[in-house]
Amino acid sequence: MANRKISWDTQALQQFNAAIKYIARDSLQGAEKVRQGILKKVDRLKTHPAFYNPDKYKKNNDGNFRAFELYHYRVSYYVSSVEIRILRVRHTSMEPKEY
């Protein structure tokens, strides 16, 4: 299986960076653990894009919108034939929003 390119929506990257900054206020080590963990799972998507379940919060999801959770953060992404686009990063305690 060919590797697909990973791209981040601007908003998703801002959400990810804000989460890491927030965690770092209490623990630099914790922030780094979360950062590395999420990036490792995102990198895995290059070769296994369908590994995680379809995103249950996506309306009319044809199966190309998927999500995973790690350390209480939910990462939503879209799978196309050539790329994986990271769409959102949010804490799981936040009210889920359909999109």
Strand order of the largest sheet: 1-4-3-2
Give the overall shape. globular
| Helix vs. strand class | alpha+beta
Instruction: Tell me the number of helical segments per DSSP (H or I, 4 or more residues long).
Output: 2
Tell how many strands the DSSP assignment holds.
Answer: 4
Radius of gyration, in Å, reads: 13 Å
Mean pLDDT: 93
Task: Give the CATH class.
Answer: Alpha Beta
Distance between the termini: 30 Å
CATH topology: YaeB-like fold
> What is the helical fraction, as a range of percent?
25-40%
Annotated CATH architecture: 2-Layer Sandwich
Any idea how many domains?
1
SSE series: EHHEEE
The low-confidence runs, each spanning 5 or more residues with pLDDT under 50, are: none
